[in-house]
């Protein structure tokens, strides 16, 4: 067994593309946490097994899950996920309060201005 304290792990700083992608993912999928939207399916399944044992029924284990596709490039997989899904924030704004629409529009405008400034500084 390898002692992890002996491993030499180089310090790696993420590049600009990785940071931009991370920020985009966070902005796109950020919503206020609402615990009522979630269901404890593990507890339900466990209670089902416990009750089956109490009743004397035979317990069958679930079949093994099939292996998923091998992800070669995490960055490419993240980019593809952004292409497939519509922006969650836009979908939410269709049904949310006008106040949220104004706030999102203001943030989008600020981001747009920041990009325009970045492009103008680059000499393009």
Rg, nearest Å: 23 Å
Give the helices and strands as they follow along the chain. HHHHH
What is the multimeric organization of the chains shown?
single chain
State the end-to-end CA separation: 55 Å
> Strand percentage, roughly?
under 5%
Mean pLDDT: 78
What is the strand tally? 0
pLDDT < 50 runs, ≥5 residues: 114-124
Helical fraction equals 55-70%
Q: Tell the overall outline.
A: extended
Structural class: mainly alpha
Largest sheet: none
Work out the helix count. 5
Salient structural properties:
56% helix, 5 helices
Describe the structure.
With 124 residues, this protein is mostly helical. It has a domain at 87-124. Helix content is 56%, strand content 0%. The chain is extended, with a radius of gyration of 23 Å. The N and C termini lie far apart (55 Å).
């Amino acid at each position: 067994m390898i002692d992890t304290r002996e491993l030499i792990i180089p310090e790696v700083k993420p590049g600009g593309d990785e940071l931009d992608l991370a920020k985009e993912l966070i902005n796109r999928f950020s919503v206020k946490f609402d615990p009522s939207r979630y269901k404890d399916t593990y507890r339900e399944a466990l209670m089902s097994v416990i009750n089956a044992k109490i009743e004397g029924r035979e317990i069958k284990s679930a079949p093994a899950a099939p292996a998923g596709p091998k992800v070669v490039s995490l960055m490419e997989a993240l980019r593809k996920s952004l292409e497939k899904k519509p922006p969650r924030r836009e979908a939410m704004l269709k049904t949310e309060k006008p106040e949220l629409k104004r706030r999102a529009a203001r943030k989008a405008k600020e981001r747009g201005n920041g990009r325009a400034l970045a492009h103008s500084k680059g000499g393009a």
